[in-house]
Each structure stands twice: as C-alpha cells, then as structure tokens.
Amino acid sequence: MKNNLTAIALAAAVLCALPSAQARDANANEEATKRHFASLVAPGKAPKLAELTMFFTMMPKGGDLHHHYSGAIYAEQYLEWVDKEGLCVNKTTYTIEKSKPAGACVSGQDVMNDNTLLANLLQRWSDKDFYNHGAVQSPPDRQFFDTFAYFNPVSSTNTADGLQRLKQRAIQENLSYIETIFEIAPIAKDEDFDKKALAGGVTEADFAALSAKLEKDQAFQGWIASYIDNVNKSGAGIDDEQFTLRYQPFALRFLSPSQVYSQIVSSFKLASSHPKIVGVNIVGQESVNVSMRDYALHMQMFKFLKSKYPSVKLALHAGELSLGMVPPEGLTFHIKDAIDVAGASRIGHGMDIAHESNPLAIMKKMRDARIPVEVNLSSNDFILGIKEQAHPVTLYRKYGVPYVLSTDDAGVSRNNLSGEYVLYAARYQPDYAEVKKLSYDSIRYSFLADPDKQRLLKALDGKFAKFEAEIAAAQTRAGR
Ligand SMILES: [Zn+2]
C-alpha cells in the first residue's frame, strides 16, 4: 500500500514537472504571435498598418478607461435620435431645433439621404475631414469641443439604446469593459459662494457650509436620485459574460465655483451610493480661462470631499495642455496637484508633464504609487497637436509610469480603441509582451470591485489563449 502511494506520488510529481501538451501549445502559440507581431513593426521599416489593424481588432482589449459616453456616440446615431425625439436639423447652421420652418429644417433621415449635407454636418459634429477642407475650420481645440454643443440636444436621450450600441461596438472589436464618463453630475448654483470664491476667499468652512445647504436642497437631492434611476434603467441588461460597464459622473470645470463644487459633491455621493458608479471625474476644456483660473480651487474641493468619502476613487483630467495654449506658468502644476492635493488614482491625458515644475519626482511618485495615465493618442494629436516623439507617453514609458490606452471621444474622433492600439504600435514599436500588458493593465487599473476585476482578468487569459492560437494557425497557413 505504502509502495503504491509512493509510486502515485512520484508519477504525480513527474506529471507536474512536465508541461502539459496544452501548456506547450499555448507557449508555442504565444511565441508565434510574438514573432508575427515583431514583423509588423520592424524597426526601420514602414509599419504594416493593414495587418496591425486586423491584429488589434482581433486582439482582446481589456478595458477602455477614458471614455466619454456622449463623445463616443457617432453622429449617424444622433441623427436617428433627432427623428425619434421629433426634432430637426437646421440646414444652414447644422444645429438641432424644435420647430420645422418649411425647408429650412430637415429630418435626420433627410440628412442621411443627402451626401453633401451629411458631409457638411460631419465636419461640424465631429473631426471628420478637418484636414481635407478649409471651409469650416475653427482652431482644432475649438472644433473638437464645439462638436458637443451640436449633438447636445439629443445626447442625453435614448441612453439605454446608446449604451447597447456601445456594447455591441465593444464586442465587435473584442473589448470587454468600458468605464464611461456618463452624464453631467447634478448641479446647483450659489451666488454668495461664487462671489467669495472669485475674491479668492473660500475656505474649507465654506465648502462644509455649501455641502450642508445642498443636503437640504430638495431639487438637488431629487436630481441625484434620478441620476441613479437613469443608471439603473439605461444600464439594464448590459452586463453579461462578454461585456461589463461601469460609470463615472462628471463635473464641468469651466462652470462657476459653486456649480463645480455642487457637481463634485453629487459625484462623490453617487459614487458612494451605487455599486456601478465607480469613480468621479472633472472634464471640459482645461485651457479656457475659467478652467485655468479655478484649477487650484477645484483640487481643494476634491481634497475636502475625498477626506469625507475616502473610498471614492478619482480619475481626473489633468494637464491636457500644450505649450503656447496657455502662458507657461499654467503648465507647471496640474498633474502634481491632481495627485498631491486632490488624491487622484488615475490621470486623464497628463500631457503637460514635461513642463511641470518637478517632472521626475511626479513620475517617480506615479510609478511607486501605481497611478496610471489614461493615454488618448488621437485626441491629443487633434486637440493639442502633440504626437510621435513629442507625446509624453514616451516619458511615461521610459520612467516606468503605468499607463493605459483609451479613446476619449471615439464618435468625435471617429476612431475606435483598436485604432488607438494601431497608432501606438506604429509609432512606438513595442513588442507583443508590451501591448499584451497594456490590455491587462486596462483591467488592473480599472475601478472595478476586486471580484469583478479578477473575473475579467481570468476571462482575458482565455481570450488571449484563443487569440494566440488563431494567429499562430494563420501564420502557419500563410507559410511563416
Ligand atoms: Zn476626456
């Protein structure tokens, strides 16, 4: 009996020491995928863009962590909702209107049926053709942010439909998770607070007083309840085996101080009261006057509320600026303050790092504390004109700061997440291990609850095994 047991134990030990046939195949598939990928971005040669596009469309991409819901919807979808809401599009201004004066205002379907009209509309409602046509060009940053005003009248309608469309698009490109910046956070205005803030005199006592006032504001509290109701209704039936969605409410940084404060208050409240609202954000053009003037104040607001709600996570747009856009002093502290003052867990864009006062110390902190940057290559190229070797992802990469690739506003940029990976690979020639890590990191650095995170990481293992097997087999067939 004893001998038998010893023999079984020995056999088990031998089996464990030998890799199983399955594991051997998996390793061989991964090696073949590595070799194939290296051939697509070989140094000194033009990147094979069509192959890269196919590769990244097929490659499992964990999550998109910097994703604005309204900017992700394509204009064609908004035109459908124009008709559904009984609205029309002004043929001269391309704005959405309520009434229909004969001939001047047409249906979304009419726009879709008129190729010239549609082309003209897309030049206003998105970045499409910006570099092909001179006629309607405003500066690119204005062009980008102005698109939102065009589709704003319908962007908060049909949200359940919108989320379903985004889910289908995600599945189509093998993306399993989106953390979307969804709908403006409930807001209230307080004239006295604004006056005091503009005079430079608000303190934490004023924050506390305004918080107490908002607590008793029925309309404000009702709006918070309806935000939750909207998340429940719009998101019903979204999460399943293939796809998971989480939400972040946002404050608009160019509004008045009390409006921004109230939005940050409601965002914290939302994030601490609903399991699918996983973080808070602040968005809007950072280079405009009010955003720049109040930046430090906004960080104080986050600091104050973070101390009240320590478990709420912050993903803050910070440093979405370039030299020349604002005076140089404005480029020196946004990322640092988002981390050191506000307590951000992730940084959106982080574009001005090279201009900040102590970039090496900030990057060391980001590396040690695992605070990633959400990198949005297309958006940064268009809005800030920063690309190739001028993009600070080159610094984050060199100095060990974690980062993830994300889309920002795929409907405005008319791109998708696979396209962002293509751009990254073509520009920076990573190896396969690096892009695979980027995919995993986009789940690791998500604000998902831990069990969900583990579930998605495990699913990613299976998806990569399948993907690598497919690539390896295709390369064998192609005689590589
Ligand atoms: Zn953004």
Task: Write a concise synopsis of the structure shown.
The chain has 480 residues and is α/β, with parallel strands linked by helices.
Q: How is this structure best described in words?
A:
With 480 residues, the chain is α/β, with parallel strands linked by helices. The chain has 2 domains: 75-125, no CATH class; 159-462, Alpha-Beta Barrel (TIM Barrel). The chain is built from 23 helices and 11 strands. Helix 3 crosses helix 21 and helix 13 runs parallel beside helix 15 (295-308). The longest helix is centred in the C-terminal third of the chain and has 28 residues, at 450-477. The mean pLDDT is 93. It binds zinc ion. Zinc ion binds next to strand 1. Zinc ion is lined by residues 66, 68, 283, 317, 348, 408.
Summarize the SSE layout with pairings.
Layout: H1 2-17, H2 21-40, H3 49-58, E1 61-68, H4 69-72, H5 75-84, E2 88-90, E3 96-97, E4 105-106, H6 108-113, H7 115-125, H8 140-155, H9 159-172, E5 175-184, H10 191-198, H11 204-215, H12 218-234, E6 244-252, H13 257-271, E7 281-283, H14 289-293, H15 295-308, E8 315-318, H16 334-340, E9 346-349, H17 359-368, E10 373-375, H18 377-384, H19 393-398, E11 403-405, H20 410-413, H21 417-428, H22 432-444, H23 450-477
Parallel strand pairs: 1-5, 5-6, 6-7, 8-9, 9-10, 10-11
Antiparallel strand pairs: 2-3, 2-4
Helix pairs in contact: 2-23, 3-21, 11-13, 13-15
The protein binds zinc ion (ZN).
The site of zinc ion has 6 residues, from strand 1.
